[in-house]
UniProtKB/TrEMBL annotation:
Superkingdom per UniProt: Bacteria
InterPro entries reported for this sequence: AhpC/TSA, Peroxiredoxin_AhpC-typ, Peroxiredoxin_BCP/PrxQ, Thioredoxin-like_sf, Thioredoxin_domain
PANTHER family membership: AHPC_TSA FAMILY PROTEIN (PTHR42801:SF4), THIOREDOXIN-DEPENDENT PEROXIDE REDUCTASE (PTHR42801)
SUBUNIT field: Monomer.
Family as reported in the entry's similarity comment: Belongs to the peroxiredoxin family. BCP/PrxQ subfamily.
Organism per entry: Litorivita pollutaquae
GO biological process entries: cell redox homeostasis; cellular response to oxidative stress
Protein name (database record): thioredoxin-dependent peroxiredoxin
Catalysed reactions, as listed in the record: a hydroperoxide + [thioredoxin]-dithiol = an alcohol + [thioredoxin]-disulfide + H2O
Transmembrane segments: none
Amino acid sequence: MLKITDPAPDFTLPQDGGAPVTLSAQRPAPVVLFFYPRDDTSGCTKEAIGFSDHAAAFEALGVKLFGISKDTVEKHAKFRAKHGLTVPLLSDAEGTTCEDYGVWKEKKMYGKTFMGIERTTVLIGADGTIAAHWPKVKVAGHVEAVLDAAKAL
């Protein structure tokens, strides 16, 4: 599990409709990574729309936003188009980044146990270290909490 002040694990991931994104290349901009289980599910859609609705406020602070799931870039493109999302979505099809950030977890639903992405958000400071971390995210009010933390950087 990552802790505040730990260096954020670097990655390069493909994004829908654009060139691959390398985390270290975003410096010195702060970065918000929101990890979510799957495109087009209820909670994931609400979260992605929330970040898209607040994208201008994050941009005004110089903060870059990226959503990450194991879905393909093609599925991300459909998801973005269907819901008018403005936040870039990155595909971690191999799951390496999810594992590096500790979000690939054992989950239980309807009595079944399976592996999946635990909804998590990470705020990375301009120096490339973890500035804030939200595991087991509940969508309501979350985007606003992340924006408040970004303002405090």
